Amino acid sequence: SSHEYKLNFKKSKEACLIYIQDALLQKQWKRAAEFLTCYVESLEKDYSREHIGPSEMIWRIGTEILWHHSQSNMKEFNCFMEQMKTLGVKRYLKVCLEHVFHLLCNGQIDEAYQNLSLAESWRFGEQTAIQDKEMKLIQAYRGLLDYYSWSKQKNILLEHGEDGFSDLAVEQEMHSYFRKAAVNLKEIIKIPGVWDIFVKCYVDLLEFYGDHNEARQVLNEYAYNSKFPANPNAHVYLYQFLKRQGESKKSLISALKILHDIVPSHELMIDFNTMLQKSKKRKKRRLGLEVIFAALDYAGWKENAKAWSCLARQVKQIVISEKHLDWIKQEWNSRKDWWPAFHFSRYLAKRNWQENKNLSYEKALVAGILLGKDCKYFKYVSHQGCKAQLKRFRMLKKFVNRHNPVYLRISG
């Protein structure tokens, strides 16, 4: 019967998709391509209306297969993408964007720019208004490529420019790219979202032409506008800009404080800690200790000698002065149950000693203060250092032994 035929057809089509999915997951690109061919042929007899249309399914699966298939090439990929553009106007701009990304990944910058220009001139009734966001992305990426061309001309001017007409021609071409890039980049970063690369390029343009006020305004808006999603990079870019402009320590600390709240493990926390330690204000020095302790909570910092040096320096200063031992105690109370195994095991002591003696020295000092002279890490490293007749390790051992009562006060 007609109903039974449609039911069987639907089952076979779904089975074909499952086989394709299985082949994709196992990275069997040739097998996936064969099943996709069967799926495309079966669609000629399919008159159902699904939420995700067949053309989108073919586009997404076909793109993945062609990108990974050992026998595919850019000519075939370009041909496939051009066919996909004609299958559905609702996805036209999305397909164009994906096509551009693949061209850029293959170094075909001129072809990518040409595709963006064609996509920008695309019009199709009401669909043009519906796909407004995609159109803005098209324009933004064209602005990014204009920035790339501007950057190339700038380098030519700075490195090989000579007085005369050739120099003037390069400069005029550079300004032309600047105007086109600036217009499109400025538009996209007005929309709430994560636009890191676009913001960086736009700020670079503004800084080159000395428009520092506009650059500052853009970065402040990107970092502090509540309509934009929380983005650590926004605060990094603002900090780097302020640093280039020679801004006050107060401004730099303010920018990094927010970054610390969002990502306490960010690499700039060493810069943050260093600035805070140098401050005359007790509150900021206290924050500096909190910052470096928080950073070392993360596995990526376990063997960061600079971070351990920052912590060792501040802990040593506090122990010698015997002021603010409560700072150390407060930080240690929440870590004393897991830091010993995480940072100060005998196994780590041996490995750190073999790989980086500076690291093992800084860690041993911290371990000795926090866990006392009987700490496994401290005992192993100080013994190896004294055995190797290294003066700094003998001094380390004396320092920890002399201040062992501090450990008792910290441990409570």
Question: Main traits of this protein?
Answer:
412 residues; mainly alpha; TAF1A; SL1/TIF-IB_Component; 76% helix; single chain; 23 helices; TAF1A polymerase; extended
Produce a short descriptive summary.
The protein has helices at 2-25, 29-42, 54-68, 74-87, 92-105, 109-120, 127-130, 132-160, 165-188, 196-208, 212-224, 232-244, 249-262, 269-277, 282-295, 305-321, 325-333, 339-343, 346-355, 357-371, 376-387, 391-402, 404-411. The protein is mainly α and 412 residues long. The radius of gyration is 30 Å and the shape is extended.
Mean pLDDT, rounded to whole units?
Answer: 89
Biggest sheet descriptor: none
Helical region count? Answer: 23
Number of DSSP strand runs: 0
GO cellular component, one term: RNA polymerase I transcription regulator complex
InterPro entries: SL1/TIF-IB_Component (IPR052669), TAF1A (IPR039495)
Organism: Pomatostomus ruficeps (Chestnut-crowned babbler)
GO biological process, one term: transcription by RNA polymerase I
Q: What would you say this structure looks like, in words?
A:
The chain is mainly alpha-helical and 412 residues long. The chain is extended and about 90 Å long. The protein starts with a helix and ends with a helix. Among the domains are: 104 residues; 97 residues, no CATH class. It has 23 helices and no strands. The relative contact order is 0.04. Helix 1 packs antiparallel against helix 2 and helix 4 runs antiparallel to helix 5. One of its GO terms (cellular component) is RNA polymerase I transcription regulator complex.
